[in-house]
Amino acid sequence: MPNVSVIIPTYNRRDFVREAVASVLAQTYRDFELLVIDDGSDDDTAAVVHEFNGVRYVFQPNRGVSAARNRGVALSTGELLAFLDSDDVWQPDKLKYQVAFFTARPEARICQTEELWLRHGVRVNPHNKHRKVGGDIFARSLQLCLVSPSAVMLRRELFAQVGGFDETLPACEDYDLWLRIAATELIHLIATPLVIKRGGHADQLSHQFWGMDRFRVAALCKLLDSAALSSEQRRRTEDVLRMKCNVLAQGARKRGKDGEWYLALAAAYTNGGRICPPPVPLPQGEREPVLRCRLNH
């Protein structure tokens, strides 16, 4: 049984996935298995992956990146889980550094590494708001995602405990999972940049949806419905939910839509948990993420 399971979800990225797979197979740490979960590609992804030996290729009908990652975890056997987005690549010592970290820190359950950012092939520096820190990162993570799937490694028991990626969220599924983990766990940081994160291409999820905060709001509502938050964490979460709903309401008005739905949602979660005022109907033509919250009960 391998110590590490590496899972690459992919969808119509034949030109990227070859380099992603090659970067895993070039790792100096060798006790791993590699699964590529093809989420319904209709290009030559299968042929590209089959160029390599030692890769388990699994095809499934298109269900989204969360379902692909969860499928990979379900089919894998390693005690440690590592994910690699198919448009990113690893430096050769990535697994070696993280396995050594967990060996030295048996109480730790999740860590990530630093990363280098490329946009259209050019090195860029992330803004300060994206700067990674280690430890208790819950409060900073409420605004935006501060954990990269390609940089993270976690123990299988932790992934199972929190329930994996939310397959109802078409985007910001990583924000949702890392927030649920950060509410109760320290997320450790290895300061060495061991991931090359490549952005700027049109098929990124951030380019496919307007108002990405809609999906972050769904994640915040889930958190507030859970029993995982301390009183201080709940206060901070309510503050960020209120702010994001106000921004979404303003954006809806600019698009000629009714923004009252977002304001009602914020009121339902930031007035001592009471629904006040009652939620208004969703604006006609709008499709919101599945909010497993009191507003849908």
Explain what this protein looks like in three dimensions.
By secondary structure, the chain is an alpha/beta fold. The protein has two domains: 4-203, Spore Coat Polysaccharide Biosynthesis Protein SpsA, Chain A (Alpha-Beta Complex); 213-296, no CATH class. It has ten helices and nine strands. Strands 1, 2, 3, 4, 5, 6, 7, 8 and 9 form a nine-stranded mixed sheet that branches. The protein is globular. It starts with a strand and ends in a 27-residue tail after the last helix. Residues 274-282 and 292-297 have low confidence and may be disordered.
Write the layout of secondary structure elements.
Layout (H helix, E strand, L loop, with lengths): L3 E7 L3 H12 L6 E8 L5 H5 L6 E5 L4 H11 L4 E4 L5 E2 L3 H11 L5 E10 L2 E3 L13 H4 L10 E4 H7 L10 H10 L5 E12 L13 H13 L5 H24 L5 H11 L27
Comma- or semicolon-separated keywords:
297 residues, alpha/beta, Spore Coat Polysaccharide Biosynthesis Protein SpsA, Chain A, disordered C terminus
